[in-house]
Structure formats: C-alpha cells, structure tokens
Amino acid sequence: MSLKIKSVVALALSAAMLFSAAACGTSDASKSGDSSDSSNTTTGYDVSTIEKDDELAKLVSSSDLVKDGELSAGMELSYAPAEFYAEDGKTPVGYDIDMTKAIAKTLGLKPNIVSSMFDTIIPSIGSKYDLGITAMTITEERMQSVDFVSYYRAGSTWAVQKGNPKKLDTSDMCGAKIAVQTGTVQEEEANTIAKGCEADNKAEVMSYKRQAEAATAVATGKADAFYADSPVAGYAISQTDGQLEALGDVEGVAKQGIAVKKGNTQLAEAVQKAVQKLMDDGTYMKILKHWGVESGALDKAEINPTDLN
C-alpha cells in the first residue's frame, strides 16, 4: 500500500482503510528531505532551532499556568494537514502540531499533544489540557466558553466524487447526503441547509467523529459530499489520486484560534505574544509554507478578536 492516502490509513479505521485501498499512489513530498517548502508531507517542520524567549517564559514559569513544564494541547488527530498521524500511525504531524511545538519552545516548555474528539475539546480546556489547537473557527458562541488567540484564517469547501456524478450544486444541496465532522461549524451550516429543505427533498446530514471518516464516506459513495475547512478539504482531495474534487468556491472565510481557558488572561497573553513573535520572525510563515497552507496566514495574533473574518 502506498503513502498517498497516508493520513487516512494511519487512523486504522475500517472505512479509512477502504478509502486508502482505492486511492493508491505516491507522494513525492513525503519522500523529500526539504523541510521548508513542501506540501503533502508527513514530516513536520524542524523547530529545533527556535530559542526560548526569556521574557515570555517568565509569564508561564512564575505561576501555576502550566504543569510540570509542559504545554498540553488537545487536538482531533484526523484533520490533515492541520493535525493527523504520519504513516507510522502514531506520530502526530501537521501545521497545528508544528505551531504547538514552536509556541512551547518559545515559552520554554515541553509540548504535549493530547488526542481528543473535536466536540470534547472545548469542555476539557483548563482541566485535561492547557490549550485547544485544532483548526477551530472562532465564533461568538465558542467565545462564551473559552478565550481565543487568532492565528489562521480559513473558509469552508465542498468536495464530491470526481466528475460530480450526483450533479450537485452548492446553491441547493437539498436531497444530498452531506458528510461532516461532529461539532464543527460545517455541521451547523449543513443542519441549517437541511432545515431549509422541503419535507420530500431533505438534505441528510451525516455526522462523523473524525474528518477522515467524512471524506471516506464520499469516496466510497456512502455520502454525496463532504463539507470541511478549506485547507483540510484541499489536502484530502490532493491525497486521493483524483477520486475527489472541490465543488464551487471557498465559502465563509473566518479566523481560527487557539483556545485557552476562559479568564486565564496570563496564559492567553503568553500564547498571543509567542504566536506574534513567530509571525514577526518568519517562523510562522515557514511552517505554513511547509504544509502548503500559507494562503490563510495572518500577520497579527489577537486575543478574542472583534473582527472574526
């Protein structure tokens, strides 16, 4: 079996394995030793040269903000290229992984990636882990539960089987079987679409715990389309040897954020300043370019931004 659909195979889910068997091929980027400008890779960006910022480190080391010198982050590890498992099935990789490592290095901490289901991450911040870094769109509703540090911008993309055999149109998805990940903005939007359909032509929303399962559902014909963050959908499409294609334009571009326990202003400030430092010194852009997702780059990290677009 090839590495082409490695991000799905690594999940060891039965549906994902069916998907991989149908999408054999080879990713040149995964073989390359280039750590600066290669997309579709499962080798993370090298953060070993990032040095601790003593002033920022004091923000976390002089308090009980983090435990045992670790910065723990909850992630849903099937969301390539943001966070997923490499072809060995156990090594977390992706631009969110690299950002977490870079932030931790800047703060003089050891990163600790905690695998979690997407819909359990917000309720667990501050208890199970320090941060939630998982390509999470910042919304007014979510800001009622956690604080956010903005670090990326993404939209939503529809994907269908190559050739769009069901002849779907993004302006009218009634009657379609729509695969989404549980707890995402896209799930909310798909449910809104379904509510607007006539009773005899309802859209069916199929929610999956992992994004890879949603993509697999479309590749195997169980669902008609999946809806996901634009970089995630784009990566999934690129890994399927032409099985899937984007449908329509990118929709609803919005900022994504690193979630911090509500009211933990000192940790939020430390993270915001660390992200801004990485933006200013060029490390942030190098990480995004490494994964081919630099189109969503921001130049300013903010705590609870008022402009969410």
Automatic annotation (TrEMBL):
It comes from the Bacteria. The keyword DNA-binding does not apply. Transmembrane segments: none annotated. InterPro entries: SBP_3_CS, Solute-binding_3/MltF_N. The keyword Flavoprotein does not apply. Residues 27-46 are annotated as: Disordered. Its main location: other. Residues 1-22 form the signal peptide. Keywords: Signal. Residues 70-295 form the Solute-binding protein family 3/N-terminal domain. It is found in: Cell envelope. Belongs to the bacterial solute-binding protein 3 family. This is ABC transporter substrate-binding protein. It comes from Bifidobacterium hominis.
